[in-house]
Design brief:
With 452 residues, this protein is an alpha+beta fold. It is 35% helix and 25% strand. It has helices spanning 11-23, 40-44, 63-73, 89-97, 107-114, 116-125, 141-151, 174-192, 249-266, 296-303, 307-315, 394-407, 417-424, 427-431, 438-447, and strands spanning 4-7, 27-33, 47-52, 77-79, 101-102, 155-159, 169-171, 197-201, 207-215, 221-233, 236-242, 270-279, 282-289, 332-339, 351-352, 355-357, 364-368, 375-376, 383-391, 409-411. The protein has an eight-stranded antiparallel beta sheet, with helices on both faces. A five-stranded parallel beta sheet has the order 3-2-1-4-5. A three-stranded antiparallel beta sheet has the order 7-6-8, covered by helices on one side.
Length: 452
């Protein structure tokens, strides 16, 4: 087992990894930007190193600085957390080249799944259902029109190196093809330095269903059920729950078996998530996230399995001590992302936390890095807390969530807490009747006259 792990991240995920390391008896090193010197994981870690300026490129994306910090402190492994360098093939390769362990999959799998075209082709060959569309990069407007004529409209252009909803544009007719294609390429280039895009048939009312997996280096793979992440804004998740109200036990078992068989054939090692669009009883592969997910907490609550500890163990070369028959699902869990954003426009709201009170009680979990008088900087993701509630049934879970959100007090900045309160009172949400377009179609009605 590792003796010292450097945590190459910030915020709630850094604290999450630090806690797991503490419980496992592993020393920790926190790295931070100048503005993040007062973060809680920096205070709690055994050692800390400032790795650069406030902007991500100067610090959390600064590979040389992170590797230097690891060498100086004698770390034998690096946990990349979520975002930043967590799916960076170059970083993983350089970590190994410095005789340290990257706590994540191999560079080969990072490269394979990082290219959405290659990922889709690979998963299709492994028996995973995919959405019909282009076989690879769409290289011209004329080619796009030809493919769309065969698949039918609407169609969706997606960045091959994309994520987070960037580089995605819909064309509802041939007249919209050229503009959507050019906009997708421009956005892909601006965000990922690569303007390669591919095209898929656009599904009109899908849910976003993802399957959490855990795999070791000895061919053992288990899945921890699904998470329904259909409530999104700007293609980014806002609320996640498990199990999904849309799936039956049989469907869960079937897609779980398909996924674990594919991951086993792939030879993948670590935690990972296969994301699907689910429409009319059918699953369509979107992408594989080769890292810990923000919403991993939901799966932990319904299975009792600590994903971060298991991730560290398999990275250290240990065998999984969990078989699929050992994975039991208990009750229902929902995670609410509390972002420092305006609830109507989703514009970031950095600033000082003037008052703070987190809810508690049985079945209420808070993952957060903020505290009273903490100043939220404008440089990073707006996520400031996750409230995860767990109960025996979905109805009980919703009731517990209403109480938890009513207790939550965050003053000084705008947050998405008020939007979550509105969601919990909506009949569609209560009934579990929604898809990935639901929030964008209902946001104005949901918040009209009540959220500014």
């Amino acid at each position: 087992m590792f003796k010292k792990i450097l945590i190459a991240n910030r915020g709630d995920v850094a604290i999450r990894v630090l806690r797991a390391c503490r419980e496992m008896g592993i020393k920790t090193v926190a790295v931070h930007s100048v503005v993040d010197s007062s973060l809680m994981h920096v205070k709690f870690a055994d050692e800390s190193v400032c790795i650069g300026g406030n902007r991500s490129a100067e610090s959390y994306l600064n590979i040389s600085a992170i590797l230097s910090a690891a060498e100086i402190t004698g770390a034998d492994a690096i946990h990349p957390g979520v975002g930043f360098l967590s799916e960076n093939e170059k970083f993983a390769t350089m970590v190994a080249g410095h005789n340290m362990t990257f706590i994540g999959p191999s560079p080969e799998h990072l490269r394979m799944m990082g290219d959405k075209i290659v990922a889709k082709k690979t998963m299709s060959e492994l028996g995973i259902p995919v959405v019909t569309g282009s076989d690879g990069e769409v290289k011209s407007v004329e080619e796009a029109k030809s493919i769309a004529a065969q698949s039918g409209y609407p169609v969706l252009f997606k960045a091959a190196s994309g994520g987070g909803g960037k580089g995605m544009k819909v064309a509802n007719s041939q007249d919209e093809i050229e503009n959507a294609y050019k906009m997708a390429k421009a956005e892909a280039k601006a965000n990922f330095g690569d303007d390669c895009v591919y095209m898929e048939r656009y599904l009109s009312h899908p849910r976003h269903i993802e399957i959490q997996i855990l795999a070791d280096a000895y061919g053992n793979v288990v899945h921890l059920g699904e998470r329904d992440c259909s409530i999104q804004r700007n293609h980014q998740k806002l609320l996640e729950e498990s199990p999904s109200a849309a799936l039956s036990k049989t469907q869960r078992e079937q897609i779980g078996e398909i996924v674990t068989n594919a991951v086993k054939k792939l030879g993948y090692v670590g935690v990972g998530t296969l994301e699907f669009l689910y429409e009319d009883g059918k699953f369509f592969f979107m992408e594989m996230n080769t890292r810990l997910q923000v919403e991993h907490s939901v799966s932990e609550e319904i299975t009792g399995i600590d994903l971060v500890k298991e991730q560290i163990r398999v990275a250290a070369g240990e065998k999984l001590n969990i078989k699929q028959e050992d994975v039991n699902f208990f009750g229902h869990a929902i995670e609410f992302r509390i972002n420092a954003e305006d609830s109507l426009t989703f514009m970031p709201s950095p600033g000082r936390i003037e008052e703070l009170y987190f809810p508690g009680g049985n079945g209420v979990r808070i993952d957060s890095h903020i505290y009273r008088d903490y100043v939220i900087p404008p440089y990073y993701d707006s996520l400031i807390a996750k409230i995860i509630v767990h109960a025996s049934t979905r109805d009980e879970c919703l009731a517990k969530a209403r109480g938890a959100l009513d207790e939550l007090v965050i003053e000084g900045v705008s947050t998405t807490a008020e939007l979550h309160k509105k969601l919990l009172c909506n009949k569609d949400i209560i009934a579990g009747d929604f898809d990935i377009h639901w929030l964008e179609n209902n946001l104005q009605t949901l918040t009209k006259g009540e959220i500014s």
